[in-house]
Batch of 2 targets.
Target 1
Amino acid sequence: MTHRVLVAYGTKNGSTAEIAEMIAGTLRRRGLEADVRPPGEVAELAGYDAVVVGGALYMGRWHRDARRFCRRHRHELRERPVWLFSSGPLDPSAGERDIPPVSGAHRAELSLGARSHITFGGSLRAGARGRMAKAILDEGRGGDFRDRERISAWAESVADDLAVAGAR
Ligand SMILES: Cc1cc2nc3c(=O)[nH]c(=O)nc-3n(C[C@H](O)[C@H](O)[C@H](O)COP(=O)(O)O)c2cc1C
């Protein structure tokens, strides 16, 4: 059976959407169908066998679109395998240790019975929206800390889990 997976993401400056695309790319290479969507475009989860929800971190909070998505679709999500990710740290820390979910992501993890949560490094590039983003960039603290291999390895583990579930 081919699983159809939704990868939904909350982003402000686009880099979390790119992580969602990377995850979907790995899932597709594993023979799964994967749709990447901003939460606002998803009316219902019928037709999806599994869901990955990701959100950017801003001021210690999981992106609002990710939080809302998990709340709005909680009943359907509880009936499906769900994986969560956050993207944030603008340094190599995410690859060096397990960074626990912030409260909004942790609440979603518990409420939905998510299979796992992972924090990936983030990215902040010239042109990012917001005064604070510009200040961080001006101080030279921006950059791209997304580790494609780590993202791909995590997506592989999602595909592995689904392959086991499908074989049952
Ligand atoms: C104003 C501001 C606040 C941020 N706060 C956090 C934070 O609390 N924790 C964190 O890990 N990263 C934080 N970051 C880094 C962002 O999470 C990172 O740039 C992320 O990749 C942005 O995702 P997006 O491009 O999808 O919006 C912050 C960035 C900005 C500009």
Note: The radius of gyration is 15 Å.
Target 2
Amino acid sequence: MQSFYVELLHGLDARRLVELREPTGNDQALFVDRGATPPVRCVSALIDSLVLRIGEHTPVPDELAQLTVGDRERLLLALCSRLLGAETDLVVTCPSCKNIVEVPIRFRDLVSAQPDTSDRRCVLAARDGSWAAEVTLPTGAVLERTLGLGQKSARRLLESCLTALFDAQGQAVAREALPEDCEAELAEKLLALDPLAECRIAVECPHCAASFETLLDGYALLKGAFGSSSALYGDVYRMARAYHWSEAEILALPLAKRAQYLAIAAATGEASG
Ligand SMILES: [Zn+2]
């Protein structure tokens, strides 16, 4: 089986090197046929399916749900890079002049982002004085738990990242007591520890010279790379015609293998019509 390696920023228990297998049509189908499954769950299922080892060790069920949000994004970007090449263009709309702007991105530059700090303690400025907190990073498991909470999900996510909270008098308080005016500062702190959790790209508009930031969403990029349902099943149809394999056999092929077989069939005219 073909595999490749990705270095995580946090990993699990100091194990940071992940071995993944190449995605197949079945993995592609997870995304293109996702129906009402939330993207967070698609990403979790994809990671569970593709990760062969973390460090020397085969992950046990639920273990990969403990990867940080930034490490999940790192795995998605590594997959995008396998499928799209080392560089791709993001297409965004300039908020000032509304023109379409193509932003070239290099995956290697994105995943080289390092945390600004490794200190899990922070001071938060609240209206009544300085609060102190100790934090843990949001994980895939936390994202799944806060799904479907609507407007409350961001708040619940922040609360779940607090391992200790002290008010302006230095008293330990429940995490639910986090003042609302500390939320943005806490979110920035978490991002400084796990920068890929929200990948911001600085853009300068070539039409009007406005500077703005856009968010790079690994899920959306990978979904684009996996293509549409009609493209996937069009491939299955052409493969079945040319080679007489079953759908299950075709979907089990790594994507690069399928492309090779389709190129051979097209060159020999077997897949025409
Ligand atoms: Zn513009």
Note: Residues 69-84 form the longest helix (16 residues).
